[in-house]
Design brief:
mainly alpha; 81% helix
Length: 73
Amino acid sequence: MIAMEYRRALHGRWGWLLVNGVLDLILAGIIFVALPASALWAVGIIVGIDLLFGGSSLVALSLAARRNTKAVN
């Protein structure tokens, strides 16, 4: 939902936020389907993957915001 909200402001960089949201939903589905066996491995792997993609989407978002700020000035 955040990706759709910032779609106009980010001019093509909102896709990283969308990928992050979709990945979060997929990983949540994997955990739900594989419970209780997933409880042993899910925390480390899923949180690590989420942090990796969440961080990369925030870096892309900040680069797009910086580019938009330079364009305005």
